[in-house]
Amino acid sequence: MKHLISLSLLSADFLDLRRDIEMINNSEADWLHLDIMDGVFVPNISFGFPILDELKRVCKKPMDVHLMIVQPEKFISQIAETGAYMMNVHYEVCTHLNRTIHAIKEAGMKAGVTLNPHTPVCLLEDIIQDVDMVLLMSVNPGFGGQKFIEHSVEKTATLKEMILRKGLPTLIEVDGGINLETGKRLLDAGADVLVAGNFVFNSDNPKQMIHELKML
Ligand code: DX5
Ligand code: ZN
Predict the structure, then answer these.
(1) Taking a C-beta distance cutoff of 8 angstroms, is the pair 37, 69 a contact?
(2) pLDDT for 1
């Protein structure tokens, strides 16, 4: 499978969201990555349902929702109502992850589990067969534009090895500090989906940057 690009809205111009959504709609980006933060699980607050509900009307790309919140299971039906394609919950906040993953699927979405940089891949041994995607954080979650954590490349390779060993179709998405250089190394290590925010939106030609990420 050719790799996918999930564009993170966090670095968009929130005063000109319509313009940025149109750029994304007309770009080669495969998904729109939406970072929801609660100021509890992560030391920042981003945006929530009022934005997701509006995006549903104008965004033509599948929505890849990354919940950086405690108790994400409370919001499964509300996220499903936004038309989200993928719902990613953090491993670190899910006491009953198996139940949560199945509830996400029953609500009609793909289910993703997200690991913080310090959370080892081996903890997924008994849940990976149930998830559609693993989202590996390559920065500490909470902010766009941070420096890529180098160990993420090795971690991606370890996860790929687990997925191949079990013969599963699980996707690997990596999020944080991705540019052409880190993106290439992650793809070589086995990543399927690259999240990009700052690298694209802070460039002079976002559509061209998306194209270059897609060409890696
Ligand atoms: C960080 C978010 C990321 C972030 C990535 O908490 O989960 O999705 O927007 O942004 P960049 O590409 O700027 O590191
Ligand atoms: Zn994210």
Answers:
(1) yes
(2) 82
C-beta of 31 in contact with ligand 1 (< 6 A): no
Distance, in Å, from the CA atom of 144 to the CA atom of 198, rounded to the nearest integer, reads 6
Q: Report the relative pairing of strands 171-175 and 133-137 from DSSP bridges.
A: parallel
CA of 171 to the centre of ligand 1 (A): 18
CA distance 194 to 183: 7
Nearest-atom number in ligand 1 for the CA of 140 is 6
Phi-psi category of residue 37: left, alpha or beta, with phi > 0 → left and psi -120 to 50 → alpha: beta
Residue ranges, the chain, pLDDT below 70: none
**Which sequence positions are flagged as catalytic?**
35, 175
Residue among 73, 135, 130, 134 at smallest CA distance from 107: 73
Is the shortest distance between the CB of 145 and ligand 1 below 6 Å?
yes
Q: What is the pTM of this model?
A: 0.98
